[in-house]
Specification:
This protein is an alpha/beta fold. The chain folds into two domains: 5-75, Helix Hairpins; 78-156, Transcription elongation factor, GreA/GreB, C-terminal domain (Chitinase A, domain 3). Helices cover 39% and strands 25% of the residues. The chain has helices spanning 9-38, 47-71, 125-130; strands at residues 5-7, 73-75, 91-96, 101-108, 119-121, 138-143, 146-156. The chain has a five-stranded mixed beta sheet. Helix 1 packs antiparallel against helix 2. It is elongated, with a radius of gyration of 22 Å.
């Protein structure tokens, strides 16, 4: 049994569109490349054919991965969550007490996590520590940089 993957409506739509492109245009392009490589003769020593088959394998892996994510995903409605606690899809403003710096994070699933966009997974150490907490709470997290303490300053949807 697979674990439920929580997605925003936007991320689900993005994945559906990507899957559509990969299964139509992507597969057609690979088939064209394989056909062209086959026309070059002996397949046992045909580097173009081998490369196209490898590319086909990678494409099918990506299609399979996206299909699994979509099959196990659930779009979430934040209106179901209270406003006073950190949940998935909460926007959280925290202060790192050690360095006295403020950070804004968007709490998302692993499938949507992107540290460069300040989207942190609810499965990450910091994400797990923040879940269910309220404004004014302090959480301590063991990160690669050592133990860090964060004070929750603000929670938004």
């Amino acid at each position: 049994m697979s674990q439920t993957i929580y997605l925003t409506k936007e991320k689900r739509k993005e994945l559906e569109e990507e899957l559509n492109v990969l299964t139509t245009k992507g597969r057609a392009e690979i088939a064209r490349k394989i056909g062209e490589a086959r026309s070059h003769g002996d397949l046992s020593e045909n580097a173009d054919y081998d490369a196209a088959k490898d590319e086909q394998g990678l494409l099918e892996l990506k299609i399979n991965k996206i299909s699994r994510v979509l099959a196990n995903s659930q779009v979430i409605d934040t209106s179901e969550f209270p406003d006073d606690k950190v949940y998935i899809l909460s926007k959280v403003k925290v202060k790192n007490i050690k360095i006295n710096k403020i950070f804004d994070y968007f709490m998302v699933s692993d499938a949507e996590a992107d540290f460069m966009e300040d989207k942190i997974s609810i499965e990450s150490p910091l994400g797990k520590a923040l879940l269910g907490k309220m404004v004014g709470d302090t959480v301590e997290v063991n990160l690669p940089t050592g133990m860090q303490a964060y004070e929750i300053l603000e929670i938004n949807k």
